[in-house]
Fold this sequence. Notes:
The protein is of the alpha/beta class. It has a single domain, classed as Response regulator (Rossmann fold). It is 39% helix and 19% strand. It contains five helices and five strands. It has a five-stranded parallel beta sheet with strand order 2-1-3-4-5, sandwiched between helices. β1 (9-12), α1 and β2 (34-37) form a beta-alpha-beta unit. The relative contact order is 0.19.
Amino acid sequence: xxxxxEKTIFIVDDDPFWQSVLLQVLQDMGFQNISLFNSGKxxxxxxxxxxxxxxxxxxxxxxxxLETLPKIKNHNAKTNVIFCTSLEDLNVAISxxxxxxxxxxxxxxASKTExxxxxxxxx
Length: 123
């Protein structure tokens, strides 16, 4: 995970509270190069920054994460995407994983321990 600390991370979510929670968790873990985006469109428009990791919300105002995810993977198939949602919906989780998401993070379970577990599984 040490090599990830220097990589670019995107948090893509239209909820400022969730953005700040996840931002704080990542900063507490030592990550510094974190960009926040309020929509899938903003994320897509900034893929030239070559994120190594994207925390992608499912429900956003302009688009949903399932529409944004393939565009991220088409830009760079090696980008790790962590699909984030407050919905416990098995169909959404399956769709996210089939579309290339590395992991599915329920917002209610977001903690330093859970995020660390997910990031450790990237290696």
